[in-house]
Amino acid sequence: MEITVRKSDLLKELLQLQGAVERKTTMPILSNILAEAMPDGRLALAATDLETGLQTSCAAKVKVSGACALPARKLLDYVKLLPEAELTIKRLENHWVQLRCGRANTRMVGMSRENFPELPAFPTSGIVRLPSVPLRAMIQKTIFAISSEETRYTLNGALLVAKPSSLCLVATDGHRLAHVVQEQLTLEGVGAELKALIPKKALAELLGLLDAAEEGDTIEFGQDETSLFFRLPIAGSESVRVLTARKLTGQFPNYEAVLPKSHLHAVPLNRDEFQRSIQRVAQFADERSHAIRVRFEANKLVLASSASDMGESNEELDTTFEGEPLVIGFNANYLDEFLDAVTEDEIVLEFKDDSSAGQLRPCSNDGLQYRYVVMPMRI
Fold first, then answer.
1. Diameter of the chain by CA atoms?
2. Which strand (E) or helix (H) includes residue 360?
3. 152: closest CA among 171, 169, 167?
4. Integer Cα distance of 59 and 239 in angstroms
5. Cβ atoms of 190 and 128 closer than 8 Å
6. Are 95 and 110 in contact (CB under 8 A)?
7. Measured distance CA(295)–CA(302) in Å, rounded
8. Of the candidates 21, 199, 229, which has an alpha carbon nearest to the alpha carbon of residue 125?
9. Is the pLDDT of residue 366 over 80?
10. What kind of architecture, by CATH, is found in domain 128-233+242-255?
11. Which residues of 231-254 are buried (b: 16+ CB within 10 A; e: fewer)?
């Protein structure tokens, strides 16, 4: 294997691959990136932790085809420090690799290509094309609500529901639920309802890949019995990136039963003002529960918190409310994360009473119908 590649091209792909690299050292080969010089003038790169995998490539001048595995973190750190010039990578004996760039000449210990796991192949049928920009926004609005508790396996991902004319993404951790729908679409490849439970790490990697997506771009989605696949074009190139994720098994909760059907009260709020008040009051909330009290009075909302070892805090906000005063307890972090994900200036807090779930949503929408349900807390 001997190739020449531009430092900037290689660095861009190495940065994309880091999220799929295994951080633990139980299997040393998984902390490596597979680099393969292809006869068609590409340097193919791959990384996997056996749950999530990413394949990508960059243009290269291939003198000798071949492959080797290189330590992902060390390679990235070294390439970052190189000058903007062409980099020559040559495999030597016993899996050693030589890197030459300008006056820099380095030898690095690699591993055999045969030790690197085989990544599943992108399916040849059942491919669905999804709009990139709406999908990116949907992930941003739901990913934070995915459970991080490993014991709740089916809640460790978000449910994608694709229909011929709509796309939906739902996430919950049992205490709150984020639900977003994009309608008036024409989804190529969707004949009937299609569901897929996407792991949180795969969604995070997909979000990073979609950062450069522009209006009108699409992403190819496919699945087989064990894996999910996402294929995206690389901007300015004829090559693609392929993200793979092992399927989550089990039954996702009946989220439609959780979505409130009616509300007695709808309280309009300025998003920025509401969030800043929550953040200040939360400084004096219990460090374990993060509970704050939200009191509704005539045309007023009062946020309050107290902790015996720190102190107490409260703030008033003007709003529209009619009815008997009532108090609802909420996890301040849950409210703050929703407000981070919303781009609109005005939101609505809807609820029935002090023991029912509250629902937050933007007053308007940018084509996405966004609902966020938060269970109340006893305070």
1. 80
2. strand 358-362
3. 171
4. 9
5. yes
6. yes
7. 5
8. 229
9. no
10. Roll (3.10)
11. bbbbeeeebebbbbbbbbeeebee
Residue 98 near residue 106 (C-beta atoms within 8 A): yes
Taking only Cα atoms into account, the Rg of the chain, rounded to an integer number of angstroms, comes to 25
- Alpha-carbon gap, residue 334 to 321, rounded angstroms: 22
Q: The domain 2-115 belongs to what CATH superfamily?
A: DNA Polymerase III, subunit A, domain 2 (3.10.150.10)
CATH architecture of the region 260-374: Roll (3.10)
Whether 214 shows a pLDDT value over 90: the answer reads no
Q: Residue 308: CB partners within 8 Å, gap ≥ 6?
A: none
The string of pLDDT tens digits covering residues 177-201 is 999 999 988 898 898 899 999 999 9
Give the residue range(s) of CATH 3.10.150.10 domains in the chain.
Answer: 2-115, 128-233+242-255, 260-374
Cα gap 25→45, rounded to integer Å: 21
Distance CA 17, CA 33 (A): 8
How would you list the strands of the sheet with 311-318, edge to edge? 311-318, 300-307, 291-297, 326-331
- Give the pLDDT confidence score for residue 223 in this predicted structure: 95
Candidates 303, 379, 330, 337; CA nearest to 146 is 337
